[in-house]
């Protein structure tokens, strides 16, 4: 809603020809149009979340074995009467559609179910592991953006060496598995040079290598998009005119071209979140860090489906939220898109 | 791979074009990548030719020796020769990548054609499902599949393949829509061809053609994803010399045996680089309609 207000605000500040437009209903129809676009977008979001929840329900049904035995865990013995009670309490004797309804109702209240392995609410388990993963992701984003800007500013536009190096580097970055990069960093800087701790999550020093491992593949993609954006921006008339006024090469790139080149990066935000979450599974394993990725992997190994679906639903929610916010913010960042 | 290169190169030159002349226009980098790829395929087909010993032979007396004469890549904690293991690991590693690419392509082709040609309802439904799948990181989707199926080589192929199905399905659907509206497909309708024949003989081959080159590039991603799952301990079991599993094993010895964590990773990266290079070249050269 605040977004709708903001756009209406911009609408009143729109160029003169708009305010002088013959129909007085101009701004109102624009507001309606924006609201309709936002509404359509939110409907699509609801669709994706409903789909993800249905996928989670399906995955829970697909776990082989009798649900009561799965719920009780491998070591528990239970009398038939207790089993019948559990079956009744959990609604396993209900039709699938009713179970689906109950599942959705619980999800709506934020209840992600109980872990088979740890016998604790999945939402608690995830909440405990959020901090280390968010720290890791934040470190990786900062490092990735810095690396991408340095890389793009240094290599953009040149026909010769910089360009060849950049293309080679991009191919290498896309072809190297990130778990291997982690192992190499660990070997060189922890086991050989003893600069960084081998594992754990104590303080900033323990965050450097995992953050870098997670950042490198992201920096490869971001740097590539940024470099293409810079190439395009450097050919713009305003950059050429700044150059003609005697602006230096570095200032030209940083002050006049970079702002225009960063815009396409915003559309990658959703992808970035997915890459961070997927990468966290790998990086937390290599560096023995706690976190959501480590939680998910141990759940996969012990086939603890409620935990896996909990992480999947969390991931889908974060992805959808971020990419929707970015999509809706894009016209605010790029004034050229407001009239469309 | 080399087979694909020579057969697809055929239509470009006349029957008189000698193999040498056919290679003349190919950039040096692509030729080098092709040569390395030939070597990798050879290692996968006939590993004994490059490394005679057994990849699982244990020599406790030679445990954890560094690289040197006679054992180029060093030995592991059981004294197994790492060079032999990396060479013999080519086949299981490539099979993981090929298997998952195959699952992704077959699934993507089937669903993409169904969405593109099966009518509005099927299209809506399948594309909404694809939206949901694409909202999840591929690795997480693969982990979800593994939780259902359990671990192992075949399950990793299925999981990685399924995770990439939505992406391929979108490409095939877009192609199918273009081909269906093309002049020759319209002409087929006008001529009164039976629908099945039209789809099977005319639409399908053209809609699926871009998949072949796409798959060469996509193979790299599949190989990395599959080796990642195997590194996470969900793929082939030890003592299989699969590269991801070797790297997983190297973690316990990393403080002393750096070579164990180096060479299998070089093998993965080199394979992905050469396949991607050759794949991009084929894509540039054989993409229809001159679209980039």
In short:
The complex is a heterodimer of chains A (340) and B (292). By secondary structure, chain A is mostly helical.
Note down, in words, how this protein is organized.
The complex is a heterodimer of chains A (340) and B (292). Chain A has 15 helices and no strands. Chain A has 340 residues and is mostly helical. Chain A folds into two domains: 67-108, no CATH class; 129-337, MetI-like fold, CATH 1.10.3720.10. In chain A, helix 3 packs antiparallel against helix 15. Chain A starts with a helix and ends in a 7-residue tail after the last helix. The model of chain A is unreliable at 1-25 (pLDDT under 50). Chain B has 292 residues and is mainly α. Helix content of chain B is 69%, strand content 0%. Chain B has 13 helices and no strands. The longest helix of chain B is centred in the last third of the chain and has 37 residues, at 195-231. Chain B is globular, with a radius of gyration of 22 Å. The two termini of chain B are 23 Å apart. The relative contact order of chain B is 0.14. Residues 1-16 of chain B have low confidence and may be disordered. Chains A and B meet through helix 3, helix 8, helix 9, helix 13 and helix 14 of A and helix 7, helix 8, helix 11, helix 12 and helix 13 of B.
